Amino acid sequence: MTKLYNLSSTILYILISIKVILLGVSFNGIYLMGIYTPIILNIMILILCFTVYTFSNINNKRIIVVISIIFILNSTFYIISNLGTKEYKFKSPNMTTTLVVTENSFLLNTNINVFQKRYVIFKEKVKNNVRADDGYKPFENKEYEIQWLSEKELIIHNSFEGGDKWISSRVNLK
After folding, report:
1. Which residues of the chain fall short of a pLDDT of 50?
2. What number of other Cβ atoms are within 10 A of residue 154's Cβ?
3. Where does the chain cross the membrane (predicted)?
4. Domain range annotation of the chain
5. Predicted TM-score (pTM) of this structure
6. Contact predicate 171/155, CB 8 Å
7. How many other CB atoms are there within 10 angstroms of residue 131's CB atom?
8. Element (H, E) at 25
């Protein structure tokens, strides 16, 4: 039992440390690839919290309960804020750069974010002005065109009002 407790505790502390580091780098625009990767990490932490809780003394149990509540609330907020979010990946003509676009619509607001894939599992946010109108999702509806000017520069043409109007946005990658 002690070996399982020690192993679970060690892995739990490592995963919580990774989560804190990821939170820190997200302020610099760097995120994990995938929409649900943070949720998977939270679920792993919660499973380990349960394991550690089972073999802990009463003082540690209180700490584990607090950690569990924080991660349950974090997961709930993340899921609610990312309902309907989809992620699209596009390779440059020479296959050296990957463009990642996330698209989310809530009520009459569409949020389109552009990222550049970094270091296999990360994506870095790129400053852009890709827009859509009235909750319309041009990427989901396949009403877009990506024109690569070079490996680090492209233009995204997308429908703005459900196909009636098209707009273009220049995106410069790093």
Report:
1. none
2. 21
3. 12-33, 39-56, 63-81
4. 2-81, 86-172
5. 0.81
6. yes
7. 13
8. helix 2-26
